[in-house]
Amino acid sequence: MRRLLRDGFLLLLLAIPAAAQSGDELWQSLIEGNRAYVGGTVTFDHLADLRQHSADHQNPPVTILSCSDSRVPPELIFNRSLDQLFVIRVAGNIAGTFELASIEYAIANGYTKLIVVLGHENCGAVKAAIAGGDAPTPSLEALLQRIRRSFHAKPATVRAAVEANAHASADHLLANSKVIREAVRSGKVGLVAAYYNLTSGVVERIR
Ligand SMILES: [Zn+2]
């Protein structure tokens, strides 16, 4: 009986079309997932069923551009399982050509209803950008230069710098991709910037 109920509930969940939710509703749902994570009640149940269901197609309604930092895994901190998040991770949560292409792909395929740019507390890439000096490789230098361009003045705190960088990263998506810009301006896709607190686990919306 319990298994019947469980399977019925799962089928119901799988049957809910992602398109039914707006960007705002999706954000609220992510925040509920974050509360579960903060409260330590995250579970990843029904993985075998979800794997079966999503094997030949995906329809993740949320795209997340977040940092590569090992302490900021989007699926965990938002309590999201397979087929729910389209995740692009790069040090400093900034977008270059291929990151823009990944987001455009998810929009063009009709998955994305919400884009979240997620900065985080104590980000090493942002701290390196604040510290200045020469980076050890041209690629790292390019990354730090991009982050530095988001600082209009010397940031008062690392948090202020992380927030400035997340805002600039969101602006970069709009400025450099017609697909993203038109999707966001038409209201088909929401765009949120957020800040993740490493110690508490809480995600705060900053845009
Ligand atoms: Zn980081």
List the helices and strands and how they pair.
Elements: H1 2-15, H2 23-38, H3 47-54, E1 62-66, H4 74-77, E2 85-89, H5 97-108, E3 114-120, H6 124-131, H7 138-148, H8 158-176, H9 178-185, E4 190-196, E5 203-205
Zinc ion binds at residues 67, 69, 92, 120, 123-125.
Low-confidence stretches: none
Distance between the termini: 45 Å
- Got a strand count? 5
Residues in helices, as a percent range: 40-55%
What's the architecture, going by CATH?
3-Layer(aba) Sandwich
| Portion in strands | 5-15%
- The chain-level structural class is alpha/beta
Task: Describe what this molecule looks like in 3D.
The chain has 207 residues and is α/β, with parallel strands linked by helices. The protein has helices spanning 2-15, 23-38, 47-54, 74-77, 97-108, 124-131, 138-148, 158-176, 178-185, and strands at residues 62-66, 85-89, 114-120, 190-196, 203-205. It has a single domain, classed as Beta-carbonic Anhydrase, Chain A (3-Layer(aba) Sandwich), CATH 3.40.1050.10. Strands 2-1-3-4-5 form a 5-stranded mixed β-sheet, with helices on both faces. Helix 6 (124-131) packs across helix 7 (138-148). The longest helix is centred in the last third of the chain and has 19 residues, at 158-176. The model has no long low-confidence stretch (mean pLDDT 93). Residues 67, 69, 92, 120, 123-125 line the site of zinc ion.
Structure characteristics:
207 residues; alpha/beta; 9 helices; binds zinc ion
